[in-house]
From TrEMBL:
This is TIGR04206 family protein. The keyword Transmembrane helix applies. The chain crosses the membrane at residues 12-33, 39-57, 62-80, 86-103. It comes from the Archaea. Keywords: Membrane, Transmembrane, Transmembrane helix. It comes from Halolamina litorea.
């Protein structure tokens, strides 16, 4: 087997795909027509969920900054959608703190 196929965890991938399929059905079919913010949020969340099924992805140097930025973006989209404002603020703040912490740890110009 190639190195790439050995990095994918099949059981976890199957579980994540089940969660994605069920959540997609609930979000876009059962709850009615989605807003633009729902679609944008889904485009952020699905790759994050799929990344859990790949071994070693968290070791990549861009993983943590992109994860923190995605968490902040999820909060912004939730806020713009008009739902869960306190939770949206928590997402934005935690994403920004994570991003600034990562920049500081790398010796960047963060806080």
């Amino acid at each position: 087997m190639s190195e790439r196929s050995e990095r994918i965890r099949p059981k976890l991938l199957a579980g994540v795909l089940v969660v994605i399929v069920v959540a997609t059905y609930v979000e876009f079919v059962w709850l009615g027509s989605p807003t633009v913010y729902d679609v944008a949020l889904w485009l952020l969340v699905v790759p994050l969920l799929l990344s859990f099924a790949v071994s070693g992805v968290e070791d990549h140097r861009l993983y943590r900054p992109l994860l923190s930025a995605a968490i902040a973006a999820i909060g912004v989209l939730q806020y713009l959608d008009g739902e869960w404002r306190i939770l949206a603020a928590a997402f934005v703040l935690s994403g920004l703190f994570g991003l600034f912490g990562e920049l500081r740890d790398r010796g960047g110009s963060g806080t």
